[in-house]
Amino acid sequence: MDYFSKSDPMCVLFVKEFGRDRWSEFGRTETIWNNLNPEWVKKFQMNYYFEERQYLKFEIYDIDSKSTDLSSHDFLGKFECTLGEIVSQGRIEKPLLDGPAQNSGKIIVIGSEEVSSCKEELILKLSGKKLDKKDWFGKSDPFLTFYRQNADGSMSVVHRTPPIKNTLNPDWPEFRIEARKLCQGDYNKLFLVKCFDWNKNGDEDLIGEFRTNVNEMLKVNQSGQAATFEIHNSEKRKSCGQIILHSISVQQILTFLDFVQKG
User: Fold this and answer.
1) Mean pLDDT taken over the chain
2) Residues 6+ apart with CB under 8 A from 98
3) What count of other Cβ atoms lies within 10 Å of the Cβ of residue 240?
4) Which of 158, 161, 143 is nearest to 189 (CA)?
5) Where along the chain do its domains lie?
């Protein structure tokens, strides 16, 4: 536990096959530094078998070092369910159990979306212009967070850019994201982009946000000129700055089988 700062949480997923007593580690999320309300970008993809009970266990750890040994980190709590429960309910919100504190917080699990067969990825280049200043003694440290809308209307984080320090006109590096992760391969499906000011203590100040879809981005970018998206904050009536889309392209994701078939 961090006594003089916030925790640095990571979620670890374990699975247990029906009829077996042993848990096996399935995967780990990234670590969210200095945050008591983490939203992990990492998603877990697994097959669902209707006729089987597939047991899942989510364990939360406060990461204290670069060690991959979980015993080197502080255990914050756990939650167990079945994959069938996630599929039937879509969203599960339960308290963490067996943690060091009486109230160790809650975990929210969102799932049960069928994975799209879309094998395309998007390559985007973005920057910001005249963003609102959030720091009293300096400029903002802006970064972007992309959210996909789930079947129940809630939003899930799918990508974060790195923060660009001390600027109101950030220029983020080009990045790639799979279309199925951003919009389930539906280029007309809206997604949400929020611009935050990064802070060392983990408190993220919202600068502004906008909604768009891939087709809109592709359409406005076809002219070869940069596309501009005004961002707004509900606390302000005026524009909070602009996000500039310099380029967007679509690229096929080739698997090993694709290479074999092409010879």
Assistant:
1) 89
2) 75, 77, 78
3) 20
4) 158
5) 9-110, 120-252
Cα 12 to chain centroid, rounded? 15
Per-residue model confidence (pLDDT) at position 234: 86
Domains 9-110 and 120-252 in one fold: yes
Q: How far apart are the first and last CA of the chain?
A: 54
State the Cα–Cα distance between residues 86 and 82, nearest whole angstrom. Answer: 7
Burial call 12-41: b when 16+ CB within 10 Å, e when fewer: bbbbbeeeeeebeeeebbebbebbeebebe
Residue type, 116: S
Of 82, 87, 168, the residue nearest 129 (C-alpha): 168
Q: In 3-state terms, what secondary structure has residue 108?
A: strand
Positions in the chain whose pLDDT score sits under 70: 1-5, 112-117, 254-263
Burial of 109 per CB tally in 10 Å (0-12, 13-18, 19+): buried
Residue 93, CA distances (Å) to 127, 225, 238 in order: 36, 44, 36
> Is 9-110 in CATH node 2.60.40?
yes
Closest CA to 135 of 195, 198, 193, 194: 198
Strand intervals (E) in the chain: 9-16, 24-28, 55-62, 74-82, 91-95, 106-110, 120-129, 142-149, 155-160, 175-178, 191-197, 205-212, 227-230, 242-252
3-state SS, 191-206, equals EEEEEEECCCCCCCEE
Superfamily of domain 120-252 in CATH is C2 domain (2.60.40.150)
The span from the CA of 188 to the CA of 191, in Å, is: 9
* Predicted local confidence at residue 244, as pLDDT: 97
The pTM is what?
0.83
